[in-house]
UniProtKB/TrEMBL annotation:
GO terms for biological process: rRNA processing. The lineage of its organism: Bacteria, Pseudomonadati, Bacteroidota, Flavobacteriia, Flavobacteriales. This is Endoribonuclease YbeY. It is found in: Cytoplasm. NCBIfam families: rRNA maturation RNase YbeY. The gene is ybeY. It comes from Gelidibacter algens. It is an enzyme of class 3 (hydrolase). Signal peptide: none annotated. One of its GO terms (cellular component) is cytoplasm. Binds 1 zinc ion.
Length: 136
C-alpha cells in the first residue's frame, strides 16, 4: 500500500496514477509492494531528519528509510517539496517531472540501486529516465 502524507501545503492531485506507476516499477524490478509512506515536508523538516538520523548537516530533496523485507518493499520516503521546486528550476524541468523523478528515486534505492559512485549514479539516472518515460 502506498500512502501520501503532507506536512506542507503541497497536495499531489494524481496520487492514484502515481501509485499505479510506482507499483508497476516495483513489480518490474522483481519486488512486491509492501507499505510505502511518502511524507512531503519543507527543507527545515528534512534538514532536522538529516542531522538527527544521518549526521548530515545539508539540505537534500529526499531521505528514505528502508524497511524492505526480502522481496517486499517497505519504507518511509521523506521529500522536501521546497528542494524539489528549487531543483526543478535548476534543471529547467517542470515541478511535476522533478517530483516524479524523486518519487521513483526512493523506490529504486529500495530495489538495490545506489548513487554514490559515478557509475552507480549513471545507472540510477538511466533507471529513473526509463520509468519517467512510462509515466504519461
Amino acid at each position: 500500500m502506498i500512502s501520501y502524507n503532507y506536512e506542507t501545503e503541497l497536495q499531489l492531485d494524481n496520487e492514484q496514477k502515481l501509485s499505479e506507476w510506482i507499483a508497476k516499477a516495483i513489480t518490474e524490478e522483481g519486488f512486491n509492494e509492501g507499505e510505502i509512506n511518502y511524507i512531503f515536508c519543507d527543507d527545515a523538516y528534512l534538514l532536522k531528519l538529516n542531522v538527527q538520523y544521518l549526521d548530515h548537516d545539508t539540505l537534500t530533496d529526499i531521505i528514505s528509510f528502508d524497511y524492505t523485507l526480502g522481496k517486499q518493499i517497505n519504507g518511509d520516503v521523506y521529500i522536501s517539496a521546497e528542494r524539489v521546486r528549487e531543483n526543478a528550476k535548476d534543471y529547467a524541468v517542470s515541478f511535476e517531472n522533478e517530483m516524479s523523478r524523486v518519487l521513483i528515486h526512493g523506490i529504486l534505492h529500495y530495489c538495490g540501486y545506489k548513487d554514490k559512485s559515478e557509475a552507480d549514479e549513471a545507472e540510477m539516472r538511466s533507471k529513473e529516465n526509463y520509468y519517467l518515460a512510462q509515466l504519461d
